[in-house]
Amino acid sequence: MTMSFLSLATIFALGTAVGADLPAATPVKVLSFADASRFALGLNPDLIALRYQEEAQRYRSRQALAPNNPVFAVSKNDMPGLSVTSEGASTVYTLSFTLGFPGKAISASSANRHQAEAIREQSAAKEIDLLVALSNNYVALAANQKLGNFLNEEFRKAQQLVKVLEKKYAAAQAAQADLLNAKVVVANLSHDLLDNQNDYQLQLTQFRNLIKKPGSTEYVPLVPEQIVIPRLKKSLDELSKLMLRNRHQLKSGQSQLEATQSNLTAAMLSPLPDLQLTGGLNIYHVATAGPVPGVERDYSLGIGIAVPIFFPFNELSGIQAATRDRDAAEAQAESQRLSAVADLQTAYTSFQSAQKSIDNFLGLVLPAAKASYELTLTTYSLGKADYFILNEARKTWTQAQKDMLAKQVATAQLFNQIVQQVGCDSNSEGGPDGCH
């Protein structure tokens, strides 16, 4: 499935696979974002069910245009007994056919067709939801990997510092409190690494659930080394116009509204009469059985018209109900439109603010925290600073890294949220490749 928002997936092209704790004999299949997308969309039972429902509605739309079946009847009159082999005085062959008033079948077909279109849009919306969830999963995995690398580096530095302090303590050049505090730092970093690994296992489980491979141990994601968040090139007004044209929930609501309008048209046509055409052939086996002496067969033709004499109690109530259904669908479509506009404005404003926050963090906070930590570490190694100051500088640097990753994850999710709300241009076929 190729979509405009998959530009975010370019961050996955630079990635390397993150290994899981798999048995040695288990073959590992590393999936890029594109490969995982095909798994997620192709094997999803919810999507398959929606596509079947769409096909069913299209078949019903065709069925509604089909003519009524004629009724052929054979009857024997004036039989001498109840035996089916008895020959009566005459045999009557009758053929009847009901012709609906023009427009009723078209309205019913149109309603089913619009229902099929609504389900197709729901299917496309479901595809985007799955891809957004998968993209968010890859972003979380990337942040987890980046945090894990950072914690491993800090863990290595902390272990080296403990060794140095042990030697200094043995030579009476370092305080016991500094040594104990350094060991506490190692223990805390070890705990953070354990949490990081647990988070990875949880995200890996979510990944396999998204690609519909729960419980499988052979599939792992190709995790990116960096989190690259695209810049929005369109203004809010441009995105709003795209959303009103492309958002699948809105298009589904519009199709539902059109379906209720077709149902209202069908209800308004219901009082108009259907015609029943009848033709018959009478064959007389007894010369005196016919109404005309000497005539052994005659014909009959008839036409019937349904008269809505109970219109106030029947058809009128149906029209009123269909009108209310149409009004409710119209109100719901307007509510969806207003909510969509408000949600897009909120997501757009939040994304722009998050981007500015990241730029500020990268330009000011992170460099300052790193410089402070490195300077304090150098000062401590020269014996000109106590361990308490070094530990505070390390905490500030570590927390700055965690905050930076959290901001990147949140901003990437906001970008995906905007894409999810805007929707995509879909073709008439739908399916895994239904969006461009």
Q: State the helix count.
A: 8
Q: How many strands in all?
A: 7
Q: What is the rounded Rg?
A: 37 Å
**Strand count, sense and closure of the main sheet?**
4 strands, antiparallel
Measure the end-to-end span.
Answer: 7 Å
| Strand order, sheet with most strands | 3-4-6-7
Mean pLDDT: 85
Q: Give the DSSP E fraction (strand runs of 2 or more residues).
A: 5-15%
Low-confidence stretches: 1-24, 427-436
Specify the overall morphology. Answer: elongated
Task: Provide an overview of this structure.
The radius of gyration is 37 Å and the shape is elongated. The protein contains 8 helices and 7 strands; from the N terminus they run ββααββααβααββαα. The strands form 2 sheets. Strands 3-4-6-7 form a 4-stranded antiparallel β-sheet, with no helix packed on it. A 3-stranded mixed β-sheet has the order 1-5-2. By secondary structure, it is an alpha+beta fold. The N terminus and C terminus are likely disordered. The protein starts with 15 loop residues before the first strand and ends in a 14-residue tail after the last helix.
List keywords for this structure.
436 residues, alpha+beta, four-stranded antiparallel beta sheet, three-stranded mixed beta sheet, elongated, disordered N terminus
Give the topology.
Elements: E1 16-17, E2 29-31, H1 33-42, H2 45-65, E3 71-77, E4 90-99, H3 104-170, H4 176-210, E5 219-223, H5 236-246, H6 248-269, E6 275-284, E7 297-305, H7 315-381, H8 387-422
Helix pairs in contact: 1-3, 2-3, 3-4, 3-6, 3-8, 5-7, 6-7, 7-8
